[in-house]
Amino acid sequence: MAVAPDAGMSTRICVCIANYNGAGLLRDCLDSVFSQQVAAEVEIIVHDDASTDTSLQLLRSEYPSVRLIASDSNVGFCISNNRMAEAATGDYLLLLNNDAALQPGALAALLAEQQRIAAACILTLPQYDWESGVLVDRGCLLDPFYNPVPNLSLDRHDVAYVIGACLWIPRTVWQELGGFPAAFGSIAEDLYLCAAARLRGQAVRCVDASGYRHRQGASFGGNRADGGLRTTYRRRALSERNKTWAMLACTPGWVVWPLLVLHLTLLLAEGAIVSLVQMDARLWQEVYRPIVPSLLVPNAQWKGLRIRLQASRRTTQRRWWRVFILTPRKLTLLWRYGMPTLR
């Protein structure tokens, strides 16, 4: 069992695992949760997003104590997590990817840090590559255009955001922030949620203990470099669009407007150059061209989010920007790995 709590213990943690065709991943993920020792009750919810493999059979036969939400249709990562959070009964949520596994002491470390802070916050653990065991990040910083920059510093704990592969949040904070925006589908929803918390003056931190292993990109393609950058058209399209939406919704003050103009100028130039160099018209049509129209449609997604977030802002400009770095992340990746390949 995951927990052996003391009698009368009231703290409850809900581990939420979004799954789609993850039959080959779920055992490692679930077993890592069941092996945790923590002074709390633990509930495990799995949302199966209309898998076509044997995920449902596996869950029902081997993990009957797991609370299963079986979707009739594929609704995506954001709605999957929103459904689990709504169904959860715990004080705290831990969003955990089906391609990740907690190291011993992970839940105890997260709970201890939450109790030490004793305030609204979002937490994560150090992320390690599944195969090599190399440290991937301790949360992420951002460049000016909201591209993630892995934090590898042992001295930095406050970060811009933590990825949704292992994201701890009090359930009341999740509810106040509104969860993941359903229109994001997947990608950058974690960036948005953490930015929303930071706008309210809430901490986003990496815990200096334990960790989790992650098969990066196993659940959605991309997200790692093995001899070069590889991703999918869909992932890249969602990434560029959703990061732009998050920039518009979350950046405080008037600086958002010149930043947006610079961002779009560079982004469209990037799209034109990469598409021409790689002779790939699909890249322009599916990834870059749709971004501007998505900002201009009536009731564009970012508008309502910005109004709500900026109305509740409690942080200062100085505090907001201290988890950003000036060097554009894409230039660093281009220098190190060359242009990405898409499939």
Please tell me about this protein's structure.
- The structure is a single chain.
- By secondary structure, the chain is α/β, with parallel strands linked by helices.
- The protein has two domains: 12-214, Spore Coat Polysaccharide Biosynthesis Protein SpsA, Chain A; 230-311 and 326-342, no CATH class.
- Helix content is 40%, strand content 17%.
- The chain has 13 helices and 15 strands.
- The chain has helices at residues 26-34, 55-62, 77-87, 106-117, 171-177, 189-199, 233-250, 256-277, 281-288, 291-296, 301-311, 317-321, 329-337, and strands at 12-19, 41-48, 67-70, 92-96, 100-102, 121-124, 127-129, 135-137, 140-142, 148-150, 166-170, 203-206, 212-214, 230-231, 341-342.
- The strands form five sheets. It has a five-stranded mixed β-sheet, with helices on both faces. Strands 5-13-7-8 form a four-stranded mixed β-sheet. It has a two-stranded parallel ribbon with strand order 6-12.
- A hairpin with a 5-residue loop joins strand 9 (140-142) and strand 10 (148-150).
- Helix 7 (233-250) runs parallel beside helix 9 and helix 8 (256-277) runs antiparallel to helix 9 (281-288).
- The longest helix is centred in the last third of the chain and has 22 residues, at 256-277.
- The termini are far apart.
- Residues 1-8 have low confidence and may be disordered.
> Level of helix content?
25-40%
- Which fold name is given in CATH as the topology of the largest domain? Spore Coat Polysaccharide Biosynthesis Protein SpsA, Chain A
Rg, nearest Å: 20 Å
| Biggest sheet, spatial arrangement of strands | 3-2-1-4-11
Mean pLDDT: 92
CATH class of the largest domain: Alpha Beta
By CATH, the superfamily of the largest domain comes out as Spore Coat Polysaccharide Biosynthesis Protein SpsA, Chain A
The total of helices stands at 13
Structural class category: alpha/beta
- Outline: globular
How is the biggest beta sheet arranged?
5 strands, mixed
Which stretches are low in confidence, meaning pLDDT under 50 for 5 or more residues running?
1-8
User: Which CATH architecture of the largest domain?
Assistant: Alpha-Beta Complex
Q: Give the ordered list of helices and strands.
A: EHEHEHEEHEEEEEEHHEEEHHHHHHHE
Strands, count: 15
Distance between the termini: 41 Å
SS strand fraction: 15-25%
